[in-house]
Amino acid sequence: ITTLINHKDKPKRSDKTLQAIQRVGQAVNLAVGRFVTVGEAIANENHELKEEMSVACIEARRAGETIAQLTDVASLDHPESDSHITIFTDKTGVVKAARLLLSSVTKVLVLADRIVIKQIITSRNKVLATMEQLEKVSSFQEFVQIFSQFGNEMVEFAHLTGDRQNDLKDEKKKARMAASRAVLEKCTMMLLTASKTCLRHPDCESARINKDGVFHRMRLALEQVIEIVTDSRPNGENEMAPISIYSGIREFKNKVEGLRENLYFLSKENLSTMLEVILEHTEDFTDSAYTSHEHREHILELSKQAKMELEQLVSVWMQAQNQKTKDLMEDLEVAILKTCQCMNELKREVHSAATSLAADLLKYHTDHMVLKALKITGVEGNLEAVAEYTCKLSEQKEQLVEMCRLLRHVSGTEPLEITCIHAEDTFQVTGPQIISAAETLALHPSSKIAKENLEVFCEAWESQLSDMSLLLREINDVFEGRRGEKRVYLSLPRPGKHNANLKALKPVKLDTEEQAKIAKLGLELHLLTSDVDSETEKWEDQENEIVQHGQGMSSMAYSMYLFTRGEGLLKTTQDLFHQAEIFATEGTKLASALHAFSDQVHEDDKPLLLLEAEKLISVCKQLQITAKASAQGKSATFTKVDACILKTRNVMTLLCQLLPLCFKLLRKNKAGNGCLKPAPPWKEDRIRTGTNAHTPERRAETFGIKSLENHVTNMTFLESK
């Protein structure tokens, strides 16, 4: 549309120009047609919005057809003298049609979004209704039936909210959604074991407290998801985000440095208040029992110095407002620099205090001695020993909660701040739940279900500790300027680490025109990643080496697709080339796994599998050569980008053929041997943060959907006593 409207009228129009205009018009009309078909299908499935959606779709289709008619100029020798109205005789017609098209397309998108929100709310309501039934259930048989239904509803909710999370543009909302979905994933298993324990021991108070805690936490998480989706707060409250020291210092420095441009844009009272708020927050460090004496002294000293530097700055600033001399402006510059330097030192000191405390605590608690002791003393029925270790766990909880609070101050980004708050909540809630589960086991030491229940809550604690190690690394990355390198999935090597020639290469960003040229290739790549994902989901054993390499390659290909859209973590062409190299290496590893797998298949099938493996090695080598080749200048760089994406597409096309072949051979092999491996247990199959190479844009905090589906399927095998 932009191309058509910006088309400059020239007296001489070549056949090539006329054909190009017609192609653009037809392309717009075809795209609108496809878009409207989807909109009409959505309208037919949602009667309450059918009329509005249908009207918007009709408007869009009409506008697309108008644009096609106005650009139907390739067959006309002299379009302006013909009775046929074209873009050349009616430029305003194209503008009107374009406006109508954009307006109607926006309407369709808004209506479709309303439908998605309604689907999520409806799904949440179903989950809540079934949860109420689960809370009131009194027989084990009835519980199994209702939990089966609940599991299916949670899987549906997981899919809907996962898609929504991927679509969110606001990183803060994305992090909140991820945190809520992580709670729901972990609580689903807790709800199962806590409810079973309560049914087995109906008169046990600690078992009831344990179960009630899980239900309450799940309801809060469900409510938060709806708040994020609908962008609302209960009772019209405004969300008050806690202010961290980092964000306070950043804002304060911006205001101070703004004095260089404008001496009158804020008052001295504003600056003083901002510093007071920052120094108030440093009391979280100085008042903490876990801050070292050395760190406490340094923070107090720097706080005092910051006040003095600000006093000096305000004095010079006030003088400069009255008399703007060269000497005063130089003094002001010195005062600004000294104030900012002092704030940087304060920032560095609180970062050091928080991260060193976190590192020490995580190292100290890595052996999980208290949890092990609770399990042993619980099975022994030793109530005194359980009481002793629950006190130790409470102390540990307080330490970890304090650690999360201090880390939040130095996290550096809003998403990481939210992750710290989520971690704090998890420790606050899970600690007492472990204690109630341990007390239940101590009261019923021979109960297998009480033992299993304690195991589940201990696992959640251990998992959160493991996540804290990853979070600490990310916080350090942000502080050291490696912002954006998310270790959860990132497969990019750091510049200079894996390739000696990287220093000589200058990263290049593509301009709009080049971005458009590779968009088509990127779209094909996106479709192929969807195909690969569909194939890997068919495998029962998600830990299979072939599946894991396939999933890793799909994730990397998806990040390359996002690059073609100007999105994702691959910001420059150099990032893309790094990713292509790692992608090719992963493909070579997959080929090795295929060679190993060929020893397990029938002799008749072996040659075909080995042939495909050799093809994969060949295309991966080609991609590696292309990615490593030097490219000087913008034109050569773009050609290299185009070649890398094209060859990645070729690898993914081959992968789409390989995966179904391997799946077929695996099934054939198992059928021939007359045995099938059992599906992995839920807890082992769960998708753990930081273990798989999944991109956050499409698989962020994926809720363990497959594992939940497996668990629901296996519900029939639950104890029926």
TrEMBL record:
Provide the protein name.
Answer: Alpha-catulin
Which GO molecular function, any one, fits this protein according to its record?
actin filament binding
Places the protein is found:
Cytoplasm
Q: Which InterPro entries does the entry mention? A: Alpha-catenin/vinculin-like_sf (IPR036723), CTNNAL1 (IPR030045), Vinculin/catenin (IPR006077)
What species is given as this protein's source? Tyrannus savana
Under SUPFAM superfamilies, the record lists: alpha-catenin/vinculin-like (SSF47220)
User: What keywords sit in the KW lines?
Assistant: Cytoplasm
Q: Does this UniProt record's set of keywords contain Cytoplasm? A: yes
What is one Gene Ontology biological process annotated in the Swiss-Prot or TrEMBL record? Rho protein signal transduction
UniProt similarity note? Belongs to the vinculin/alpha-catenin family.
**Main site of residence?**
cytoplasm
What Gene Ontology cellular-component terms does the record carry? cytoplasm
